[in-house]
C-alpha cells in the first residue's frame, strides 16, 4: 500500500514538472487597469427561434492585455447558462472592433415558446482577470420575422471581423424531463 502511494506521488510530481516546463505565462496587467467596452450593439432585440444574432462590440485596453470575451445568458423560466468564452488573438489585445455570432438553434430545444425572454451579458477579461464594464442586451423570441437594426458607424463598415461564435444551447423549460420522451412538462399539462 505504501509503495503504491509513493509511486503515485512520484508520477504526479513528474507529470506536474513536465507540464509546467511547457507552460507559457501571459503578461500580467496592473490590477487598477481593465479593458473598456466603448460601444456595443445587438443586431435585433426580438426574433424567431433559430435566427442568427450578432453582437457588435468595440473595446480598448491601454495595457494591451485583452484576453477573452465572456457571454452569459439568463432565460426567464430557466435561469443562467454557463459562461461562454471567446479567446482573442494578439491583434485584438489593444483595440478590438468586431462581432460575436450566436446561432440561436439549440440541440436541447426543438422550439422556443413565444415571448421567451433572454438577457445577454457581454464583458471582456484581461490576462490578469480584470473584467471590463458589462453590456446587457434583452432579447425576446417571437414568431414574426424581425429585420436587423441598421448598423451605425463604426459597425457599418464591410470589414468588421467575426470575433467568434457564442456556444450557448438554450433549453425550452416546457420540454424538460419526462420519463416517456425525455422532456418534463408543467404540472398543468399532465
**Alpha-carbon distance between the two ends:** 56 Å
Low-confidence stretches: 17-25, 178-186
User: What percentage of residues falls in helices of 4 or more residues?
Assistant: 10-25%
Number of helices: 1
What is the gyration radius calculated from CA atoms? 22 Å
Topology of this protein?
Layout: H1 2-21, E1 36-42, E2 46-47, E3 52-60, E4 66-75, E5 79-80, E6 84-87, E7 95-103, E8 117-126, E9 135-141, E10 162-165
Parallel strand pairs: 2-9, 7-10
Antiparallel strand pairs: 1-3, 3-7, 4-5, 4-6, 4-8, 8-9
Gist of the model:
With 190 residues, this protein is mainly β. It has a single domain (36-172), classed as Immunoglobulins (Immunoglobulin-like). It has 1 helix and 10 strands.
Keywords:
single chain; 190 residues; mainly beta; Immunoglobulin-like; 6-stranded mixed beta sheet; 10 strands; 11% helix; flat
Task: Provide a descriptive summary of the structure in words.
This protein is mainly beta. The chain has one helix and ten strands; from the N terminus they run H-E-E-E-E-E-E-E-E-E-E. It has one helix at 2-21, and strands at 36-42, 46-47, 52-60, 66-75, 79-80, 84-87, 95-103, 117-126, 135-141, 162-165. Strands 2, 4, 5, 6, 8 and 9 form a six-stranded mixed β-sheet that branches. The longest helix is centred in the first third of the chain and has 20 residues, at 2-21. The chain is flat, with a radius of gyration of 22 Å. Mean pLDDT is 82; it is low at 17-25 and 178-186.
Amino acid at each position: 500500500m505504501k509503495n503504491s502511494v509513493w509511486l503515485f506521488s512520484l508520477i504526479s510530481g513528474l507529470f506536474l514538472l513536465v507540464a509546467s516546463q511547457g507552460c507559457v505565462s501571459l503578461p500580467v496587467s496592473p490590477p487598477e487597469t481593465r479593458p473598456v467596452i466603448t460601444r456595443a450593439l445587438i443586431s435585433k432585440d426580438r426574433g424567431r427561434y433559430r435566427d442568427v444574432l450578432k453582437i457588435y462590440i468595440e473595446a480598448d485596453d491601454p495595457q494591451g492585455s485583452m484576453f477573452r470575451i465572456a457571454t452569459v445568458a439568463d432565460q426567464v423560466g430557466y435561469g443562467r447558462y454557463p459562461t461562454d468564452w471567446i479567446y482573442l488573438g494578439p491583434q485584438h489585445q489593444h483595440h478590438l472592433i468586431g462581432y460575436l455570432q450566436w446561432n440561436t438553434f439549440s440541440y436541447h430545444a426543438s422550439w422556443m415558446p413565444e415571448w421567451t425572454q433572454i438577457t445577454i451579458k457581454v464583458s471582456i477579461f484581461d490576462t490578469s482577470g480584470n473584467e471590463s464594464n458589462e453590456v446587457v442586451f434583452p432579447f425576446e423570441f417571437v414568431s414574426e420575422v424581425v429585420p436587423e437594426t441598421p448598423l451605425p458607424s463604426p459597425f457599418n463598415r464591410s470589414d468588421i471581423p467575426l470575433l467568434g461564435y457564442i456556444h450557448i444551447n438554450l433549453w425550452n423549460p416546457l420540454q424538460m424531463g419526462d420519463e416517456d420522451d425525455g422532456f418534463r412538462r408543467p404540472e398543468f399539462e399532465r
